[in-house]
């Protein structure tokens, strides 16, 4: 008996690119991860900054070098008059509707902020906010066509 006969052989084709909705989900999950890390840093009393690499070209020699840059992000949460923390999800500069007409999540205490962000990440992975994201992307498209 051949060793290959013990395996299940199939024809397959690896996808070369993500679907647009999966790309949007991944983009939003990455931003939520940054917000989560920023919330952890603020809870520990540290500053919140991230690093990214940029490739720059020297005009004189034509040589390309990678430079590490630090950047900071704007936090998506605030404290209201009642002392409760409100977390809003942004896609670009716009707020994502989580429920019909509602864009914020109320959190009783700042300690639960990271848990809430992780829960929102899982909801996005499951596709529960696709409708709100698609509404924003459609609005972007309409604005571009009007010009």
TrEMBL record:
<dbReference type="InterPro" id="IPR046581">
    <property type="entry name" value="DUF6641"/>
</dbReference>
<dbReference type="Pfam" id="PF20346">
    <property type="entry name" value="DUF6641"/>
</dbReference>
<protein>
    <submittedName>
        <fullName>Uncharacterized protein</fullName>
    </submittedName>
</protein>
């Amino acid at each position: 008996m051949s060793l290959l006969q013990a395996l299940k052989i199939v024809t397959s084709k690896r996808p070369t690119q993500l679907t647009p909705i999966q790309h949007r989900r991944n983009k939003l999950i990455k931003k939520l991860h940054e917000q989560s890390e920023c919330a952890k840093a603020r809870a520990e009393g540290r500053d919140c900054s991230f690093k990214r690499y940029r490739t720059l070209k020297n005009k004189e020699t034509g040589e390309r070098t990678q430079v590490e840059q630090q950047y900071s992000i704007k936090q998506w949460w605030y404290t209201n008059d009642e002392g409760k923390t409100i977390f809003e999800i942004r896609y670009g500069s716009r707020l994502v509707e989580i429920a019909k007409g509602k864009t914020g999540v109320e959190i009783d205490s700042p300690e639960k902020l990271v848990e809430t962000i992780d829960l929102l990440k899982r909801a996005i992975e499951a596709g529960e906010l696709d409708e709100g994201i698609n509404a924003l992307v459609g609005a972007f498209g309409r604005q571009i066509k009007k010009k």
